[in-house]
Amino acid sequence: MMAKDAAKTRLAPKPDHVPQALVYDFDMYFDPGLVADMPARVLDLARNAPPIFWSPHDGGYWMICRHDAVARAAREWEVFSSDHIAHSAQMQAMGGAKIDMSNVVQPVPIMLDPPDHSKFRAPLNAAFSPKTMLALKDRIRSLCANLIDKAKPNGACEFMSEIAEPIPVQVFLEIFGLPLERQAEFRRIAKEHLSQSFGGLEDSQRKLREIVDVMQDTLVDRMAHPRDDVISLLAQAQVDGRPLTMHDLQNYCVLLFIAGLDTVVNGMGHGVRHLAAHPGLQDELRANPRLITEAAEELLRRHTFLAVIRTVAKDTIFEGVTMKRGETVKLGYPAADLDAEEFPNPDRFDLNRDNKAHFAFGAGPHRCLGSHLARIELQTLYEEMLARLPTFRLASGKPVTYRCGPVIGPRELHLVWDT
């Protein structure tokens, strides 16, 4: 690990209840192997790390890597809570610190447990339904075609900045209701938020408040003057029979801002990197474009890039491992999707794989609300790239490195093709 990265990592002493055999050196934010070659490092985790391990990095946390254990933990919200902020406040209160929860920014509904989670998710269901998202397909295809055609004569592109970022970011800003001319600023803030570990409740609140502040003028405007966008829909929504407050609207929009401006960008990067490294797969999909839908799912399984964070809500023994209230648990979806017990030869991309049921969009009550839109964007991108470009390859001398954290994606992806 480089010195500059080590300085950013908070190491924790091993708790007495953690057996030495379960301690494993893995830093979600700065692991050198993850930065250099994410697909290889995640496969190494799946093969060689304990199925559940404790890492001393980032203040100390548990990571669950085995497929069936991850699936179980994702469902057991009474034990593995998504409500990190409430639990952080409780732990601080036990130490004598008082937390005013009335002004705390809490991304909802992802940081709520049932039944509150279901109540706050309900206003979003129609906005992100399959039918609503399918209506955006022509717009998405047009964006893909224009960006690819612009790059094509050059024989090369830096895919992340020239194609992967503009497509989902522009689509999201249009449906969400934020100004397109500020997309570079919004994208920078989202990337910075997901690239940094948090030093406790005060630090996380400062970073979340930065996101609120950059949207606040738009939120105030939509509360007073609704339009045909998601912010306006939420501004007029009700939860449990009461209208949403400005604080409610801020909580919703912080989550949507982070998810909408970052997640699909990374999925595109992983998928296109794999295609660029496997020209034979490109040939197969060009010859039979109907296979692209299946290919998109297998790409998501092979390159799952999201690890979600939970808080242990009560002392428990999970899969034989003792965990204490207040400890952090990370559900290692990327490693779980490479579990050989669930997926034979998990490192191999297999279009004919019977089981492609992956964790790329999460699991349990918090399964990703935007999965319908993400699938449309990914499939459409692959269709247009394969139809409009000749065989594209990874540029020599420009290795792919990865931005790490709970969402992992290529920093840059240099492609070349013959003109």
Low-confidence stretches: 1-7, 93-97
Write down the overall geometry: globular
What topology, given as strand order, has the largest sheet? 1-2-10-7-3
How many separate structural domains? 1
- The CATH homologous superfamily is named Cytochrome P450
Q: Please state the CA-atom Rg, rounded to the nearest Å.
A: 21 Å
Helix-residue proportion: 40-55%
What is the overall pLDDT average?
91
Rounded to the nearest angstrom, the distance between the terminal CA atoms is 40 Å
Beta-strand share of residues: 5-15%
Number of strands: 14
Described by its quaternary structure, the protein is single chain
* Structural class assignment: alpha+beta
Number of contiguous helices: 18
What distinguishing features does this structure have?
single chain, 419 residues, alpha+beta, Cytochrome p450, five-stranded mixed sheet, three-stranded antiparallel sheet, 18 helices, 14 strands, disordered N terminus
What does this structure look like?
It is a single chain. By secondary structure, this protein is of the alpha+beta class. The protein has a single domain, classed as Cytochrome P450 (Cytochrome p450, Orthogonal Bundle), CATH 1.10.630.10. It has a five-stranded mixed sheet, covered by helices on one side. A three-stranded antiparallel sheet has the order 4-14-11. Strands 5-6 form a two-stranded antiparallel sheet. α8 packs antiparallel against α10, α10 packs antiparallel against α14 and α11 packs antiparallel against α12. The longest helix is centred in the middle third of the chain and has 32 residues. The N terminus is likely disordered.
